[in-house]
Amino acid sequence: MTDATAAINLSQYADRLPEMDRPTVLHRCGDHSVYWLGNLEETAFRCNAYLLVDGEEALIIDPGNRTFFASAVERVRQIIDPAKVTGMILCHQDPDVAASMVDWLALNPAITVFSSPRTNVLLPHYGCGEYQFYDVVANPEYTLPSGASLRFVEAPFLHFPGAFATFDSASRFLFSGDIWAALDLNWALVVKDMDDHALQMNLFHVDYMASNVAARGFVARIADLPIRAILPQHGSIIDEGHVPAAIDYLATLQCGIDVIYADLVD
To answer: Which pTM does this prediction carry?
Structure first.
C-alpha cells in the first residue's frame, strides 16, 4: 500500500464488521502500521489487542489473556514473524490485558515489557519474572525507528494506580486501555452512535473508575494531544468525529466514590 493509506477511514467499520480471522489495518504510512488483531469472543467483555509495526520494531498493545494467545499469534503471522515481536505494552496487570505475556516471552525471551513500576511489581505473579522492562513513568517518551514517538500518559486510578495510556505520534491513535472501555453485545469495531455508546461505557466506567477527579485529571494530561482515534481495550474504537464527545464524557463522568459515597461528596 502507498502512503495514502495513512488516511484510512475508520468510520467504515461502524457499518460493517471486519473479518474476524485476520488482522484489520487501521493505519499504514511508510514503515509505520497499526492493526487490530481481531477477536472471536461473543461476550460483552470482548477484548481488543493491537499490533504496532515501525520498521524493525513490532509492539503488541494489550496482548490479552492466555486463551487468546494462539489466535493472536496466527493473526500476527499474517503481518510479520511472531518471533520478531519486540515489545509488549501493558497498561496495567489485569489478566485480560497481560496474562499472555508469559506466552509471548516464551516465544521470544528478548521482548521488552513496557509498563509502569506499580504494574511491574505484579506482573511476575503470572509466572515469569525475568524480562527486559521499560519504565514508562521514568521514560514517558519512546522513539521508534521511523522517528515517530510513543508518549506514555499516566492515568492513576483509572482504574489502577499504575495505569497509563499510550499516544502514537504517527497515527495519532491513543491506546487508552480501560479508559473509554465499553460493554456491548451489539458490538462494532468503530462507534457509530456516541449517545448510545455512552450507555455502554457507563456499564464499565461507573463501577470501575475511581472518581471524577481522576477522570478530569487524565483529561487535563491529554489536552495537548492531537488525537485522531481512541483505541480502548474493551468495546469499540472511537474515531476522530467522536473524540470530542468522548473527552467530554470522561470530564463529566460521575463514577466510583462519586456514586458509592455520594453522601460524602461535596
So the answer is: 0.94
